[in-house]
């Protein structure tokens, strides 16, 4: 159908910033509700799933780099997770603090803006 092919880029954009209101409105007009909701269910993972994804990404990055600055770590985590969901900086910071508490990471003694991976 021509309408669906013309709206495909818009649908993909909506899936990146998935909200139920936008998808319901779009789906009711072009008959894509079922497809959008199925794709969106994967896109909008539960908060617990997102926490695990953020923590796994941080640990994976730090295993390779060993020592990394705060800004560089935030940027790298955002870059790797943007395909799955847009992580907020606050959520990433909370997950980093959680990893520090559980002794996966620690702050550098000389520079508090640096993180060290603890094997």
Describe this structure in words.
- With 119 residues, the protein is mostly helical.
- It folds into two domains: 2-43, no CATH class; 47-117, Winged helix-like DNA-binding domain superfamily/Winged helix DNA-binding domain (Arc Repressor Mutant, subunit A, Orthogonal Bundle).
- It has helices at 2-16, 20-30, 33-43, 47-65, 70-81, 89-101, and strands at residues 67-69, 105-107, 114-117.
- A three-stranded antiparallel beta sheet has the order 1-3-2.
- A hairpin with a 6-residue loop joins strand 2 (105-107) and strand 3 (114-117).
- It starts with a helix and ends with a strand.
Task: Please outline the helices and strands.
Layout: H1 2-16, H2 20-30, H3 33-43, H4 47-65, E1 67-69, H5 70-81, H6 89-101, E2 105-107, E3 114-117
Antiparallel strand pairs: 1-3, 2-3
Helix pairs in contact: 1-2, 2-3, 4-5, 4-6
> Low-confidence parts lasting 5 or more residues at pLDDT below 50?
none
How many helix segments?
Answer: 6
Helix content: 55-70%
Largest sheet: 3 strands, antiparallel
Gist of the model:
Helix 2 runs antiparallel to helix 3, helix 4 packs across helix 5 (70-81) and helix 4 packs across helix 6. The chain folds into two domains: 2-43, no CATH class; 47-117, Arc Repressor Mutant, subunit A.
Task: Give the key terms.
Arc Repressor Mutant, subunit A, 3-stranded antiparallel beta sheet, 3 strands, 68% helix, elongated
């Amino acid at each position: 159908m021509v309408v669906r092919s013309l709206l495909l880029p818009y649908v993909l954009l909506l899936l990146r910033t998935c909200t139920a209101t936008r998808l319901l409105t779009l789906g009711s007009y072009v008959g894509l509700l079922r497809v959008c909701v199925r794709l969106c269910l994967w896109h909008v993972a539960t908060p617990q799933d997102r926490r695990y994804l953020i923590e796994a990404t941080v640990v994976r990055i730090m295993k390779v780099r060993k020592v990394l600055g705060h800004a560089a770590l935030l940027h790298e985590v955002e870059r790797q997770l943007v395909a799955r969901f847009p992580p907020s900086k606050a959520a990433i910071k909370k997950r980093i603090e959680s990893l520090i508490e559980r002794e996966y990471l620690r702050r550098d003694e000389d520079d508090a803006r640096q993180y060290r991976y603890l094997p």
